[in-house]
What does this fold into?
Amino acid sequence: MDQTDGVDSFRSMRSTPFALVGVVLLMSLFAMSAAAEDWQADLRHSLQSIDDEYPGELGVFVHDLESNRTVSLRADESWYLASTIKVPVAMAVMEAVDRKELTLDTEVELESTDFVDGAGETNWKSPGDKVTVRYLFEQMLIHSDNTATDVLIRVVGKDAVNDLIAAITEGGIGEITSLADVRRYAYSRFHERAMDLSSDDMFTIKKAGAGSNRVQALAKVLDVEPGDFQVPDLDAAFDRYYDSGLNSGRLDDFSRVFEALATNQVLSETSHRHILSLLEKIETGDNRIQAGLPEHVSFAHKTGTQHRRACNIGLAMAGDHPGVIIAACGRNTADLGASEKAFRQVGEAVTDTGVFGDD
It folds into this structure.
């Protein structure tokens, strides 16, 4: 293009009415807004289809931190959070590390009251054994170890965990208890004396199996007749426990915990990166949301499973994108496979929006 052509082009641009330029800009903004609304509408439709096929009830909250757009399915209702509460426990521990009240190498002596049934290696140890905070921390997050969690709650204090939750959320989260107390509160729906169950008692009850066998074992441990129980079975006992609101919360509110991790609102840079790195290594969620995400997307998340309840909540990250929080919980079904399938489909539905771009 010679100099004359350049001048003519410049004169042409100058002669373009400002009103036309404004119209073009507005049309572009409207197009971007419409595309975003289509993204949200399409995802809502997909989530509803997943929920229609699910044998129980599904709750989902998706928050794109880049656009600040959200999509919700029953996210404003209270959901039992199960082991996903181990994330705020981890944050409370790292707050104490940041304050130099302890270090990851601090040794903790295990007590007989610390032991809780569940996954992880801490139950292979004995009262009096010493382990580091680092060991407990990794067992809690990577392997969802209940005993490690309760030891850490003892170390930092239950109030520290609940104060952290209160500071991050807007009050939509019920009280966080120890994992041993989850069992005590649930079994106390049968009989109030269950609040005094020891660690050994709870292991005995767990070993009896599920259903009526566990109820019979509870009666034997409490030295009462099953006819004295206030509820007929585990379903009724746990339903009453879930109604208490303990360890429960709105998904849109609890997701703020992961937003605080993503934006580093609470912890030092080293501490928040340490938590996210461990949440990317968890070994309990391969068949849940992560299974529906592209390979180039990392997922820092936590799973939770309890009687007729399941959850998976995390932060999906790709490239320079600040992240997408994906929270999914299911209730009122004993079919864990159905819950895992639904969670995987949620991951696929979020992926289909194109929010993660290309690998």
